[in-house]
From TrEMBL:
Pfam family, one: DUF3458
Listed EC numbers: 3.4.11.2
UniProt gene name: pepN
PANTHER family per the UniProt record, alphabetical: PUROMYCIN-SENSITIVE AMINOPEPTIDASE
The Aminopeptidase N-like N-terminal domain, residue ranges: 21-184
Protein's UniProt name: Aminopeptidase N
Organism: Hyphomonas jannaschiana VP2
Single GO biological process annotation from the record: proteolysis
Family classification: Belongs to the peptidase M1 family.
Gene3D superfamilies: 2.60.40.1840, 3.30.2010.30, Neutral Protease Domain 2, Peptidase M1, alanyl aminopeptidase, C-terminal domain, tricorn interacting facor f3 domain
Domain Peptidase M1 membrane alanine aminopeptidase: 223-434
Function: Aminopeptidase N is involved in the degradation of intracellular peptides generated by protein breakdown during normal growth as well as in response to nutrient starvation.
Protease recorded as keyword: yes
UniProt keyword annotation of Cytoplasm present: no
């Protein structure tokens, strides 16, 4: 695709003062009438260019006068009217076919109901419009549909008049008083069950809250509603931001390209992130619902009231909103556990992206395909940058800067520069160098060297930074890296401070009291203050001491991870035949010691996934790494067998509560179930079958089924069939059934799953539950040296891409690390990518493949 450049930005030469939309809804032929009040703000000679794709134009007029065909031009992407007055009303009427919309962008059908997805360029598939985020307007919507089939009619803002029409149709009016860009437009129509509640804001306004779900599912929206109300309270208390409309609606749909969408006053959610109860959802699902509901709600201020000037600024809303939802989750649950989970995700997804051919900066300066910009770098690294900003200036100035941002830019579409100007104004500091973090791709590597001088009781710490070259950016400048540091001995912290590494290197000298005779341990990047990779040459003894002596929970967990990673590498490369007993004992000891914080203890038992090992040493051999990981996991299972029996011997908490406390207990229980899956104990399979049969919640039932499937010797097929028979009518639970097999099976399993009658190429959740589960969480099978893993998904991805380019492109990102694989898998991956390239991909997918092949 043609590359779009940030430097080409030009303001739109017209203002759209008001948009009046009229929808006559019909799955096969929906009529959309748009009335735009337009005023020229740019040059007198500027043509009016409106985006529009796949629209059948029925009529067009200016100020009531039908336009002659010679006055306008319609291309496959736009409507161009060369000569227009300075102020006028444009009316267009178009026809679209939502039932034919398989891309799930624009107006489409899901489960027999109408719904929309407009970010980033879906609105142009509904009507002709300047479909760009810096054109903000007031929307008035009138819609009509068959009353029996679509009794509920929703759009943004607040509801107005409703009434009956002929032929069993009815209509509703919605008005949104807040000016918004077209990507935040939404419309939903259908027959839903509704879970209702209300919220009184800090200003005393009463808000009607409603979650619209499939018939029969209302009670399963209770947790989402609870999460919404807690998010509303949190944003008031933490950022002083209250909700600004009388109603807040959520609609859950089963067919959705992403997690959810923050449309003004009408959030649309993938039903996977709304519906939950103890029988059908895991604790991970409850946690994801809580954070995604919060994320979309927080967008109301960071994204909707203040939006992006252009899509290059996507991190302005996404990085900031992820940062806000991460802090919400940390406040709802355990802050250190939340931090560790966020970093696991960052390292697994963003560090991998940053190190491969798809690397790009947090604010890119060009893109081929806009849908491919919704990446871990923009979201997760973008959030880390806000976290560093807050640490550097402190909480108070951070809040002042945010207050100024809300005050100065409310109702505007702005840039990263506008955002940082607010912080420059409240701190008097210059953030020019800090903004390099937004422009440079790649994960900085910080090397730490220590030199203890026993004569003077001084420790010298040298820090050096280097950011590796990335595609299109061969040379990097140093970025400011805030590092929380400490010196530790057996008693605890000897010193604590923050260093901002601004230059390429710096040497710090710390003087210790005379009583300190041994070199203290240096604790660096505590709480993961900066998104960097640390390079240290510590001995195993020093690392073991770190596990014992660390006072920062993140770094204690990370010390364990570093040891475990080194062990897996040694086992995978054959330099060591069996896991080191001292290490396994230390690991088991750390787990047992953390038993009072079960969520943390559970994290300590979690060994890095194969993908997390790819960046440790290259070429990466997924099969060898997987075998080594299993060996270590099995040794840990044996060491913890007594602890495991004790943990699982206690009853699971009852009655069920999805909150952090019980979820922590279940996390440790499921960690033990995972270990039973690789336990050498002869009775493990039977224990697991018993746990599966008797589980009272989906968290433990699914973990037991998975572990039972992994344990050879059990009757996995029988248990899988039992699960299928129980849940065949619940699509979200069946997604878990598909994913479980895709993550534990091989290429043949994928072929069997794709041939299952319930496999549905049109449903992104189902496709992801097979393909993404396999390609992202079963790397040994996906990267099989004979290429069988690639072959198994190739055809499915091609078919998915034909119907839904956003989905096809996303699935293809699984190939991003092909260059660092061992030679056989690498050759097979390259051949697959080349075959795909010549197979007629969508432009979204072609963009990913072209960049991957570089
Ligand atoms: N802002 C939302 C992005 C989104 C999206 C992007 C492309 C294609 C489909 C999509 N659905 C939702 C999600 C969010 O970050 O809140
Ligand atoms: Zn978002």
């Amino acid at each position: 695709p043609v590359s779009v450049q940030l430097s080409d930005y030009k303001p739109y030469p017209f203002e759209i003062e008001q948009v009046n939309l009229r929808f006559d809804l019909d799955p096969d032929a929906t009529k959309v009438r748009s009335e735009l009040k337009v005023r020229r703000t740019g040059g007198a000679g500027d043509a009016l260019v409106l985006d529009g794709e796949g629209l059948t134009l029925r009529s067009i007029s200016i100020d009531g006068q039908a336009l002659d065909a010679s006055c306008y031009e319609q291309t496959d992407k736009a409507l161009i009217i060369a000569s227009v007055p300075d102020a006028f009303t444009l009316v267009t009427e178009v026809e679209i076919a939502p039932s034919q919309n398989t891309a799930l962008s624009g107006l489409y059908m899901s489960g027999g109901r109408f719904c929309t997805q407009c970010e980033s360029t879906g609105f142009r598939r509904i009507t002709f419009y300047p479909d760009r985020p810096d054109v903000m307007s007031a929307f008035h919507v009138w819609m009509a549909a068959d009353k029996a089939t679509y009794p509920i009619l929703l759009s943004n803002g607040t509801p107005g008049e409703t009434g009956e029409l002929d032929d069993g149709r009815h209509y509703a009016v919605w008005d949104d008083p807040h000016k918004k860009p077209s990507y935040l437009f939404a419309l939903c129509a259908g027959d839903y069950d509704v879970y209702r509640d209300s919220f009184t804001t800090m200003n005393g306004d009463e808000i009607a809250l409603a979650i619209h779900v499939d018939k029969g599912d209302a009670e399963r929206a209770a947790w989402a509603m609870d999460s919404l109300k807690r998010s509303m309270t949190w944003d008031e208390q933490t950022y002083g931001r209250a909700y600004d409309l009388g109603v807040f609606n959520i609609v859950a749909v089963r067919d959705f390209n992403f997690g959810a969408m923050e449309n003004k006053g009408l959030n649309v959610f993938n039903s996977a992130y709304v519906l939950a109860d103890e029988a059908t959802a895991t604790d991970a699902d409850f946690e994801a619902i809580e954070s995604i509901v919060a994320h979309e709600y927080f967008h109301n201020w960071t994204g909707n009231r203040i939006t992006c000037r252009d899509w290059f600024q996507l991190c302005l809303k996404e990085g900031l909103t992820v940062f806000r939802d991460q802090n919400f989750s940390a406040d709802m649950r355990s802050r250190p556990v939340q931090r560790i989970k966020d970093v696991i995700r960052l390292r697994a997804r963003q560090f991998a992206e940053d190190a491969g051919p798809l690397a790009h900066s947090v604010r890119p300066d060009h893109y081929g395909s806009i849908d491919n910009l919704y990446t871990a770098t923009v979201y997760e690294k973008g959030a880390e940058l806000i976290g560093m900003l807050r640490r550097m200036i402190g909480e108070e100035l951070y809040r002042k800067g945010m207050d100024l941002y809300f005050e100065r830019h409310d109702g505007q579409a702005v840039t990263i520069e506008d955002f940082y100007k607010c912080f420059e104004d409240v701190t008097g500091e210059d953030f020019t160098q800090f903004r390099l973090w937004y422009a440079q791709a790649g994960t900085p590597e910080v090397t730490v060297e220590e030199n203890w001088k026993p004569e003077t009781h001084e420790i010298e710490i040298t820090l050096k930074q280097k950011t590796p070259a990335t595609p299109g950016q061969p040379v990097k400048k140093p970025v400011p890296i805030p590092l929380e540091m400490a010196l530790l001995d057996e008693e605890g912290n000897l010193a604590e401070w923050t260093t901002i590494l601004e230059d390429e290197d710096v040497t710090l000298t710390m003087e210790m009291p005379d009583t300190v005779t041994e070199p203290p341990l240096v604790s660096v990047n505590r709480d993961f203050t900066a998104p960097i990779r640390l390079n240290r040459s510590l001995t195993r003894e020093q690392r073991l001491a770190m596990v014992r002596m660390e006072t920062d929970p993140f770094n204690q967990w990370d010390a364990v991870q570093t040891l475990v990673k080194a062990e897996i590498l040694a086992l995978s490369e054959g330099s060591q035949a069996e896991p080191d007993d001292a290490l396994v004992t230390a690991l088991a000891g750390a787990v047992e010691q953390a038993v009072d914080d079960p969520a943390f203890a559970a994290l300590l038992t979690r060994l890095p996934e194969v993908g997390e090992m790819f960046l440790e040493r290259q070429p990466a051999d997924a099969v060898a790494l997987n075998a080594a990981r299993k060996k270590l996991q099995s040794a840990l299972a044996a060491k913890l067998s007594g602890f495991s029996a004790e943990t699982l011997g206690k009853p699971t908490p009852a009655p069920f509560d999805p909150g952090a406390e019980q979820a922590g207990i279940r996390a440790l229980r499921t960690a033990m179930i995972v270990l039973l899956g690789v336990s050498p104990d002869a009775g493990a399979a039977d224990t697991l079958r018993g746990l599966y049969d008797n589980a009272t919640n989906m968290t433990e039932r699914l973990a037991a089924l998975r572990a039972y499937t992994v344990q050879k010797g059990g009757k996995a097929n029988e248990a899988l069939a039992d699960f299928e028979a129980t849940w065949k009518d619940n699509p979200l639970v069946m997604d878990k059934w598909f994913a479980l097999q895709a993550t534990t099976g091989d290429a043949e399993t994928i072929k069997t799953l794709a041939a299952h009658p319930a496999f549905d190429l049109r449903n992104p959740n189902r496709v992801r539950s097979v393909v993404a589960a396999f390609t992202m969480q079963n790397l040994a099978a996906f990267h099989a040296p004979d290429g069988s893993g690639y072959q198994a998904v190739e055809e499915i991805i091609l078919k998915a891409d034909k119907a839904n380019p956003a989905l096809g492109a996303r699935l293809l990102t699984a190939f991003e690390q092909w260059r660092i694989l061992e030679p056989q898998a690498k050759a097979a991956a390259e051949a697959t990518l080349k075959r795909l390239q010549s197979a007629g991909l969508s432009s979204n997918a072609a963009d990913i493949v072209a960049r991957a092949l570089g």
